[in-house]
Every structure is written in C-alpha cells, then in structure tokens.
Amino acid sequence: METSKVAERMLTQLRAQVDVSRLDATSLSDTIETMVRQDAALADQGLNERASLMNQIYAAIRGYDILDEWLHDPEVTEIMCNRYDQIYIERNGRLERTHQRFASEEKYHDIIQKIVNDAGKEVHLRQPIVDCRMPDGSRVNVVLNPVSGDGAALTIRRFRSHIYTLDELVENGTLSFDAASFLKRCVRAKLNIFISGGTGSGKTTLLNALANEIPRDERLITVEDARELNFENIDNWVALEARRPNASGEGAISIRDLIRASLRMRPDRIIVGEVRGPEAIDAIQAMNTGHDGSFCTGHANSIPDMQLRLETMILSGHDGLPIDAVRQQIAAAIDLFVHVSRLRDHRRYVVAIAEPLWEDGAIHYHEIYKRTVDDQKIGPLVGDPLSLARQGKFLRAGISLSDETMPRDAESESTRRPNVFRLSSDERKARAMQGGAVG
Fold it and tell me: What is the pLDDT of residue 247?
C-alpha cells in the first residue's frame, strides 16, 4: 500500500467531513487518529505505519507536507527541491536523492507560498526570487519559473538548535585544542576576525562558537541578510536583518544601511554575518573606527582569495579609491583571518589561521596555524600562537599568549615558530601607533 496515496485519500475525506481550519493542534491530531483507527483498509497496518500516516496527514494540513520528515531530522542539514518531483537532501555531509515527491506541482507551490507567507514575505512572478527564514531559523531561498527554468526551486539550509562551542569543535576535529585556546584569547582580547570559506564549509558554525566566547556584559549588534546567527550566552544583543524591496521597488533596507545604523547603537562589537558587496567598506571602516572585536564572514577558497574578493567588493561601490589604500585598510582593520573548508571526507575543518601584515606596498600573510592537506592524508592543525606579530590588543587586555594552560605542540620552538616579517622603521612606527607589536 503506497502511503502517499492513502494519505491523499484520507486528507480529501477529512476535509469533506470537518472544517480543519477551526481545529486547534490537539483537536486536529485527535481527529486524524480517530479516522486512521476506524479505516478498515488500514486494519492490517502496524503501529509504525499508522503513526507515519497520521504524521503525513497532519503535515499536509498544518505543516510543510513531505518536508516535515526532513525538517525534524537533526542529521539533515540541507533540503533542495529542484522541482516538485526531484528532491535532494544533505545528511551528515553527504548528498542523496530522495524517493519522495509532492502529490502535485500545485501542492508544491502551495507549500512554497506557506513557507514564504509564514515569514511575512511574498514571492510571485513580479518578485520571483526571495530569501527568508523559517520559525526554527532555517534559511530559505525560493526561485520561481521562468527564472528557474525547470520549475520552482526551493532550498532550505537548516541550522542545528544546538550551538557548538569551541571545545565541541575540538572534540569533532574541526579545531585543535591549541588553536581553540588561541582563538578564545583572541576573542577576549577583541581582535577583529574574518572567517572565510566555501558554501557549507562551517563559517556560521565557527562564527557562533567564537561569538559565544564574548563576555556577557558586552553589547553586540549583528547584521545579516537573513538571520542565521544565534547566541546562547549574550543578553545585550540586537539582531538586524536586511529587507528586500517590495513589489513596487520600495522599502529596501540594505546591509550598508544596517551597518551604518549599528554604529549609532553603542555597540561593543559588530558582527556582519556575510559580506557580499559594497558593504565591505562599511564593515572594514567599522573595525577601523574603534569597534574592536568585530567578526565577519565571506565566501572564498583561501585567505588570499578572500582579500581579492574584499578588494573587488569595496571597489565595486567606490571606483575612485586607490587599490593601495584599500589594501592598507584591510590589513589595518582585520587582525586575523580564519579559513574553513569541507574536505574529501565530508567533514569541516579549520585549515589556516593567519594575520595580515602590510609590508613593501602589499599584504603578506603570516600563518599562525596551518593544516597540511595532501593526497595521502589530512594533517593536524599546528602552529605557534607566540609568533603573532600584532600583540598590542593582548597587552592592553592583560591577556597572555604564553599562559601555561595553553598546550604546546610537541616540536621545539625553533622548528615550530614561523618566520615573522621584518618591518621597516616607518612600518614599526605605524604598527606602534596601531597598538600592535613591532617585532
């Protein structure tokens, strides 16, 4: 017996007998259970089959139809509907095609409209692309036909209700204990940190973990295109979310607008969930104007690639800026780049932690931690936090990088310590004015 056809038959029967819109959740569940128990065609079905059928009927009325199965599965991190009868999911880092399909294309469109409407937004032919979030925080993207040529495309990026800590990222292998201890100190010393990586590499997970190291007495403002961030231990937190224009082209609120507004909200720290365009200059300037301890994320394949993308973003809104000035701003504003990647075993790793240094008219990267990855193995994340060149913020915060609680790697100091750039006298003076160590 095909469960979907039985569910569709019983759903039609239920709607013919009862006005389901007038039933609360408990009454609707009881009514569905009674109908399933009394249906003679289901007499030979087991309890599990009946429970599954009841869930399908309830989901079709109050939930999100067949999507509910994956929305309640904590191991599913992405749901991708290319069309009503072609659905993929990502489970435990692996992509798989499901055997499920919506009853019809009309039902599929009904569910899309329900998701978007529940988020207080609209999607239609005049506005065929929309980003929104579901009540559980999952991020949704919808693209309608004809923009999506083979039918409406629905993508749901799910987020775990549990926020990982840095210690838990050590346990699952994303970070080394030494690097996690270093990053904790960086957060408390109020270093400006930029997290780069590809789609689904774990940028938001790491950002949440870092932000939950922020002291509770600080005021935090977050700026996002669609809300993804969640902080378990911060009370004084204001979340700002961008808004697309309505069908008349009015009412848009950009990331740039929100960053500028956040500067007037007396923030101790500002977090920009992701920089994608000209707002990069506002984020960089915020870091450079007294809002230390701020975080950003961006899409890139490596730390140098992230720098190039930032330059492109900034210049896209400010054609007249000299490139050297842009690069100096980046080097001065960002204390630390952290690059994350999903590797061949489908797990997410921090692969590099580096500080940008301006020397001889260019940005150079001093790698503090690095994970060696080759065709044979994925190596450990190793490095030396004491080699950090810009230690001024640590000194002002009274935080030591040589604390005995920070474990050391097995290699000797001489073999572990990366080379630190030699700075000219002018650069040493400039570094001293910025509060950094002059080396």
Answer: 66
Name the phi and psi angles at 333, rounded to 5.
-80, -40
- Own/partner long-range contacts of 43-52 (Cβ < 8 Å, ≥24 apart): 45/1, 49/3, 52/3
Q: Give the separation between CA 182 and CA 196, rounded to whole angstroms.
A: 18
Phi and psi, residue 79, nearest 5°:
-120, 125
- Tens digits of per-residue pLDDT, 135-163? 887 889 999 988 988 889 999 988 766 78
Q: Which residues pair with 194 in a beta bridge?
A: 296, 337
Tell me how far CA of residue 86 lies from CA of 2, 121, 142, 151, 425, in angstroms: 18, 25, 15, 10, 63
The DSSP result for 91-127, as a single string, is ETTEEEE-S---S-HHHHHHHHHHHHHHTT---BTTB
Q: Mean per-residue pLDDT for 76-102?
A: 92
Q: How far apart are CA 435 and CA 422, in angstroms?
A: 17
Task: Count helices and strands (H / E) in the chain.
Answer: 15, 15
Three-state DSSP state, 261: helix
Q: Checking DSSP bridges between strand 295-299 and strand 269-272, what pairing results, if any?
A: parallel
- Comparing CA positions, the residue from 111, 61, 116, 53 lying closest to residue 81 is 111
Q: What does the pLDDT look like over 188-247, one tens digit per residue?
A: 999 999 999 998 889 989 999 999 899 988 999 999 887 778 776 788 999 998 887 776
HSE-CB at 323 with a 13 A cutoff on CA atoms is 8
52-67 pLDDT, tens digit per residue, is 888 878 777 777 888 9
Q: Could you give the 3-state DSSP secondary structure of residue 348? A: strand
Strands 348-359 and 362-373 come out as: antiparallel
Query: Which residue matches tokens 């990586």?
Result: 197
The model's pTM is 0.74
CA gyration radius, the chain? 26
The rounded distance, in Å, linking the Cα atoms of 166 and 143 is 36
Residue 160: other Cβ atoms inside 10 A? 14
